[in-house]
Write a structure and sequence with these properties.
alpha/beta; 8 helices; homodimer; elongated; five-stranded parallel sheet; 30% helix
């Protein structure tokens, strides 16, 4: 029986892949992914067949993976970060209902939240939420309720997809909502192009974040009430009592 | 100048480490960690000096790392999962204030949330929260507010430290709180000993989870209103509109 590995390749560079992810790609005949991610790994896996589809063609990409596996190939479907965090593993199970003879194995990776956190310092040490600001498949009212609920309960918040051409003011809207419960002085951070060429990071206040323009390759971190800046790093303590 | 790497070794097995984590340990003179984690990596890094401290000796462990680095050694401080998720990287920055001449580099890893998610299927595809049920350093009222806020806003919830000898009924209390807003039929999952010997996983309802006894090596997942069970796997769709 042929097999499909759904593989999180980590935030960018080859050295951020796990050994298990490397092994899966090595024992695959075909490697499938969004063009940008295939380009990131291509040089490290010579002799493999690489298949790509465009950014919004996720269902087609899943079907392609199952059709290639049905031909008897071992296939890796690759995602940046972790395949299970806003990634392809869920859709692979949904499309896989039509291919009951093909086995799926999910291989976890370093997601942008923890990859970016490592660049900024230690922002995610305590309870945190991941929220995507993309309203393509989620009603904005739902996103708004989550921003408010997470802020009220003093979670550290990590935002994925904070901006796009059509959504250039969403981060500003999100900051205004979070400031209902979080102080404008809350320590925040942004990381762009994590573990890739052009990696940038910056620590700032929530008020400053509100007026910062970020792009779609940026991950945004908003601290809890205890988060502090230590030597330019963003650090959340382990709890609410003294160490 | 000597350097300390704070390294997430992933959920257990050597093959879940990233290439960057392996490199850091290889170029370290001393590797420091909680006994259990040192035992997990020891055989793969022959010739290194291994130093351990007990479970609750975190501040001592950090000080030990800085003191060893001050002697001119390169040091790796290892944590299971990701060092920045309920891990040691925050405390290393706090203790590091006393050692301004020593540089810290944080190396991310696969945390139990995404490692466990891969075993269960794809529970974390959409917005999610991590909440630790340990009230050692966090008042229970704060944990309670987070369980309620996250449930009300329909987040997928991943629970760390769901149980211990002293806190044997905390998961039951947490489930009762989450059922204020989440249906008892909500799809849930548990994973124990992720990527280690004796790995187990089970998908069940929130009502069943309430009456399940778990141990401290278990990570618990509670779905959102859209999470479903597909062929025994726990799968959260990408959004609230049809694919």
């Amino acid at each position: 029986m042929s097999k499909i590995y759904v593989v999180g390749i980590g935030p960018g560079s080859y050295e951020q892949m796990t050994g298990r992810a490397v092994q899966a790609l090595q024992c695959s005949d075909a490697i499938i992914g969004y063009t940008v991610y295939v380009d990131l790994v291509k040089e490290h896996f010579p002799g493999k067949e690489f298949l790509t589809t465009g950014m919004k063609k996720e269902v087609e990409r899943c079907t392609l993976a199952f059709e290639e596996a049905r031909k008897g190939k071992n296939v890796s479907m690759i995602c940046s970060g972790d395949a299970g965090v806003y990634g392809m593993s869920g859709l692979m199970y949904e499309v896989g209902v039509n291919y009951p003879d093909i086995e799926l194995e999910i291989i976890p990776g370093v997601t942008a939240a923890t990859g970016g956190a490592a660049v900024l310092g230690a922002p995610l040490i305590h309870d945190f939420c991941l929220i995507s600001l993309s309203d393509l498949l989620t009603p904005w009212e739902k996103i708004e309720a989550r921003l408010l609920g997470a802020s009220k309960a003093d979670f550290v918040i990590c935002l994925y997809n904070p901006s796009s051409k059509k959504r250039h003011d969403y981060l500003k809207k999100a900051c205004d909502l979070m400031m209902t419960y979080k102080s404008p002085e809350t320590v925040c951070g942004i990381v762009g192009n994590i573990a890739r060429e052009g990696e940038i990071s910056r620590v700032m206040t929530l008020q400053e974040l509100r007026d910062t323009q970020v792009d779609m390759f940026t991950t945004v971190f908003i601290g809890n009430s205890q988060t502090k800046s230590i030597g330019g790093k963003m650090v959340t303590p382990r709890g609410y009592r003294n160490v």
